[in-house]
């Protein structure tokens, strides 16, 4: 891995705005991947044999490419585009094209045979989602089906071919095929069998909250560099502005997590004789029960410990109101520090009584939420993150909104550090600088 470590230093020297992301990467040497890949936890898997075949400049370019998959949150965007096992190869082409489009302007050298928009018949300067839709509309079939897609342990061995011109991304002499360029779950959100568990002792995964903080810090440095020198590609500047001043606000992300958690109860109905069955005429004198939709039940655990500021509590109440309006849910609010106050069923956020001010243990609040009757379908925790978390997954989904520190200093240390949130809890960072 020494050659890759040298490449990391070279990339940091060439593009210092990438430094926070570069040094967050966990380097994993393995022959389980044919080339180089990343997972959602910011682990970089590298095959030493592959690295040895690349020049120093090419290795810097490949390292930049893999980091871009993580900075651009391609795994999360793939889920939004409903990328699955059948279409992930098209998403891979689309994201590769979007990343590599800026390589020349940034001065990076990439190995021969990599994907550019023009090679796919696409216009330069496009977004990944636009490229992906265009490729779907072309109705291409996976040209690498016989090579393994990497999702079941295949490493993308090259096929023999039939003498026809290779499709975009197919193998060129001395180079791996596009199937071999499997970028891992960090590029498409689909876990590979060779990826390490998130709690691996030597190479623990970066959590979702920290990853979001890393993206924001890199984006801020990119914009500072652009303002002072103005030498960056338009696509990179557009990405950075989207992170620092998101067009899709974080609140939409939080609401998406809530919808995802409630998906399993959507459309749930309960029988009742108070409402006639709509096809009663077919049953004559036998009275059949009708049904009505059951509203989802959500428990909101609000951190009222001494470390939580009034500004954070104000944000928490805003989110309670958003849940009531957007999710159409029955909401119970629990104010929690080291103990849980009595649950309050609320219709508006101003009805919530915020008691507390002591220590912090959101495990108590989650347990209290799970004991509510009728049972809740989802638990939402709103906290500054400085709390213990359950050791085992609760029986219902848990979403955590993590408030930022409004007193964090500007510059390199502006990202706030919070304890890692368990993998089974969906965390969303909530900035307070709005």
Kindly describe this structure.
The protein has 434 residues and is of the alpha/beta class. The chain folds into two domains: 2-157 and 174-213, no CATH class; 295-430, von Willebrand factor, type A domain (Rossmann fold). It has 14 helices and eleven strands. The protein has helices at 2-14, 19-24, 48-53, 56-71, 74-80, 88-100, 103-106, 128-137, 185-188, 208-229, 234-244, 250-262, 310-326, 362-370; strands at 26-29, 36-38, 43-46, 269-276, 289-293, 297-303, 330-336, 344-346, 378-383, 398-403, 425-430. The chain is globular and about 75 Å long. The two termini are 42 Å apart.
Short recap of the structure:
The protein is an alpha/beta fold and 434 residues long. The chain is 35% helix and 14% strand. This is Putative metallopeptidase domain protein.
Percent range of helical residues: 25-40%
Distance between the termini: 42 Å
Shape: globular
What is the arithmetic mean of pLDDT? 79
Largest sheet: 6 strands, mixed
Strand content: 5-15%
- Give the spatial strand order of the biggest sheet: 8-7-6-9-10-11
Note the total helix count.
Answer: 14
The sequence of SSEs as H and E is HHEEEHHHHHHHHHHEEEHEEHEEE
Number of domains: 2
Number of strands: 11
How large is the radius of gyration?
Answer: 25 Å
Low-pLDDT parts are 146-180, 406-417
User: What structural category arises from helix and sheet content?
Assistant: alpha/beta
Domain Putative metallopeptidase: 3-285
Biased composition (Low complexity): 171-180
Protein name: Putative metallopeptidase domain protein
InterPro entries: Put_metallopeptidase_dom, VWA-like_dom, vWFA_dom_sf
């Amino acid at each position: 891995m020494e050659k890759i470590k040298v490449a990391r230093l070279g990339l940091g020297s060439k593009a210092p705005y990438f430094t926070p992301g570069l040094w967050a990467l966990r380097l994993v040497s393995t022959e389980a991947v044919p080339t180089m890949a990343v997972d959602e936890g910011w682990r970089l898997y590298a095959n030493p044999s592959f690295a040895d075949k690349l020049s120093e400049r090419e290795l810097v370019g490949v390292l930049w490419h893999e980091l871009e998959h993580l900075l651009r949150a391609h795994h999360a965007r793939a889920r939004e585009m409903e990328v699955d096992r059948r279409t992930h190869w098209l998403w891979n082409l689309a994201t590769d094209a979007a990343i590599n489009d800026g390589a020349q302007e940034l001065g990076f050298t990439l190995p021969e045979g990599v994907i550019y928009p023009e090679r796919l018949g696409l216009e330069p300067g496009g977004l990944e989602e636009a490229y992906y839709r265009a490729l779907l509309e072309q109705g291409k079939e996976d040209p690498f089906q016989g090579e393994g897609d990497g999702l079941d342990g295949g490493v993308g061995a090259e096929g023999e071919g039939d003498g026809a011109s290779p499709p975009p991304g197919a193998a060129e002499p001395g180079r791996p095929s596009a199937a071999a360029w499997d970028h891992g779950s960090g590029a498409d959100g689909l876990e590979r069998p060779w990826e390490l568990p998130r709690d691996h002792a030597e190479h623990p995964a970066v959590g979702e909250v920290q990853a979001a903080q890393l993206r924001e810090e890199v984006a801020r440095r990119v914009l500072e560099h652009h303002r002072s020198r103005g030498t960056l590609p338009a696509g990179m500047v557009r990405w950075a502005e989207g992170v620092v001043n998101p067009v899709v606000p974080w609140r939409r992300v939080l609401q998406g997590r809530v919808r995802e958690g409630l998906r399993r109860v959507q459309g749930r109905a309960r029988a009742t004789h108070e409402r006639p069955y709509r096809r009663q005429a077919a049953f004559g004198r036998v009275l059949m029960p009708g049904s009505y939709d059951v509203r989802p039940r959500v428990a909101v655990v609000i951190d009222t410990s001494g470390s939580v500021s009034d500004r954070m509590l104000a944000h928490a109440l805003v989110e309670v109101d958003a849940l009531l309006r957007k999710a159409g849910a029955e909401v119970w609010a629990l104010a929690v520090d080291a103990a849980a106050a009595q649950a309050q069923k609320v219709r508006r956020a101003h009805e919530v009584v915020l008691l507390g001010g002591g220590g912090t243990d959101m495990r108590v609040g989650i347990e209290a939420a799970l004991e509510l009757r009728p049972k809740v379908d989802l638990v939402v925790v709103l906290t500054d993150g400085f709390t213990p978390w359950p050791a085992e997954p609760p029986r219902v989904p848990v979403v955590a909104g993590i408030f930022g520190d409004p007193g964090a200093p500007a510059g390199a240390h502006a990202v706030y550090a919070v304890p890692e949130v368990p993998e089974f809890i969906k965390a969303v960072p909530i900035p307070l600088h709005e």
